[in-house]
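Quarterly update from the structural biology core.
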Amino acid sequence: MAYKISDDCAACGTCINECPVGAISEGDIYCIDADKCVDCGTCADVCPVGAINPA
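Predicted structure, tokenized:
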């Protein structure tokens, strides 16, 4: 099960540098590629606004 970034995303960039498989892409709201996500939860752990949760 991949993680998903909600509309609460502040596009701060914290998560993108933490993803071990490069599954997160930049934008107004960042996006996680479900096919690349390995469900490690690292992105959710570092998100300062709590915008990343299991899908």
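Residues 3-54 form a domain with the Alpha-Beta Plaits fold (CATH 3.30.70.20).
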